[in-house]
Design brief:
Layout lengths: L1 H16 L2 H4 L2 H48 L2 E7 L2 E7 L3 E3 L2 E7 L3 H8 L2 E8 L4 E12 L2 H10 L14 E15 L5 E4 L1
Antiparallel strand pairs: 1-2, 1-5, 3-4, 4-7, 5-6, 6-7, 7-8
Helix pairs in contact: 1-3
Length: 194
């Protein structure tokens, strides 16, 4: 396509040169044609990368917004399944580590066993003062690295009396393929993904 545009531009430039009235503008026309061709090539080459970078920035912003909302609420609720029975319980940890949103629990708890059996979860948080709430559908992925556990425990030092990055109980998980929907009374729902 770019080659066709360039060739057509050259044809137009040569046609114009046959008319004496346009002859003085030929040099200008060739410059414009060259600039247009270069711009087309640059857009063709760089546009996909720019779109991917924009998507990445939007996902990071969405993740930060979700994490901030969870922290503001203080307590949020995670739903898992045990067979065909849904299970819901309160959580209070959320951090962003290495561009991922993490939560934390203990491996010995039933919730951890449920998430490891079926990693699809839902989270719900409610800000009563603002009349807004958040629902997240995601897949959780365990991260056994010491750095991830230490980052979580440093963010929530009160957990250090129960958990250690070196014990066999601390479990940190990050949310993957997450769709978060913000709701408010009287307002339209807004979805973000990360």
């Amino acid at each position: 396509m770019t080659t066709k545009i360039f060739m057509r531009s050259l044809e137009i430039s040569h046609l114009i040169s046959f008319y004496p009235i346009f002859a003085r503008n030929l040099h200008f026309m060739k410059k414009i044609t060259t600039i247009l061709c270069i711009t087309t090539l640059l857009l063709w080459f760089f546009l996909p990368a720019a779109q991917a970078q924009t998507q990445e920035i939007m996902e990071k912003n969405a993740m930060t917004e979700v994490c901030d909302f969870l922290k503001h609420c203080g307590v949020y609720y995670i739903a898992t399944t045990e067979g065909d029975q849904p299970r819901v319980r309160p959580f209070g940890t959320s951090v962003i580590f290495e561009d991922r949103l993490y939560i934390q629990t203990g491996k010995r708890k039933e919730v951890a066993k449920q998430m490891l059996r079926n990693p699809k979860i839902e989270i719900c948080a409610y800000d009563a003062a603002a009349g807004t709430w958040l629902r997240i559908a995601a897949t959780v992925i365990p991260d056994e690295r010491r750095e991830a556990k230490l980052f979580m425990l440093d963010a929530y030092p009160m957990l250090k009396s129960m958990y250690s990055p070196d014990d066999d109980n601390t479990l940190v998980l990050y949310l993957s393929e997450a769709t978060a929907t913000f709701y408010s009374f009287g307002g339209e729902a807004r979805k973000v993904r990360f």
